Amino acid sequence: HPQTPPIHPQTFQSVPVPQLQLTEEEKRLLAQEGVTLPGELPLTQAEERLLKKVRRKIRNKQSAQDSRRRKKEYLDGLESRAAACSALNQELRKKVQELEKSNGSLLRQLQALIKETSTKPAQTGTCVLV
C-alpha cells in the first residue's frame, strides 16, 4: 500500500486575508466613537453596523458641505445680478433725467415758436397764374 508523503508547512501557500481599508476620516470618526476595528475582513455584524454608521456620517457631512457650497454660489450669483441691475437702474434714471430736461427745453422752444407765429399779422400772398 502506498504511503502518503509527509506534509511540510512550506508546501502550503498562504491565502491572503482581505484587509480592511479605512480612510483617515473613517479612522477619526471610529476613534471618536471609541471603536477600533480589526485590520482584516470579515467583520462581525456589530462592526459592520458601526462602519456603515461612520460611512453614512461621512456622506451626510459631505452632502451638507456640498449643499452649503451650492447655496453660497447661488447667493453670490444673485448678489452680482442685483448689483448689475442696480447699476443699470442708475444709468437709466440718469438717461430719463436727461431726456426730461431735453423734452422741457424742446417744449419751451415750441411754445415760443407758436407764440411768435400767432402774434404776427397774417401776410397776404399774391398768386400768379401763368
Automatic annotation (TrEMBL):
Keywords: Activator, Coiled coil, DNA-binding, Endoplasmic reticulum, Glycoprotein, Membrane, Nucleus, Signal-anchor, Transcription, Transcription regulation, Transmembrane, Transmembrane helix. InterPro entries: bZIP (IPR004827), bZIP_sf (IPR046347), CREB_ATF_subfamily (IPR051381). One of its GO terms (molecular function) is DNA-binding transcription factor activity, RNA polymerase II-specific. CDD domains: bZIP_CREB3. Residues 75-116 form a coiled coil. Its main location: endoplasmic reticulum. The keyword Nuclease does not apply. One of its GO terms (cellular component) is nucleus. The keyword Membrane applies. Transmembrane segments: none annotated. PROSITE patterns: BZIP (PS50217). It is found in: Endoplasmic reticulum membrane. It is a single-pass type II membrane protein. Residues 50-113 form the BZIP domain. Belongs to the bZIP family. ATF subfamily. This is Cyclic AMP-responsive element-binding protein 3-like protein 4. It comes from Brachypodius melanocephalos.
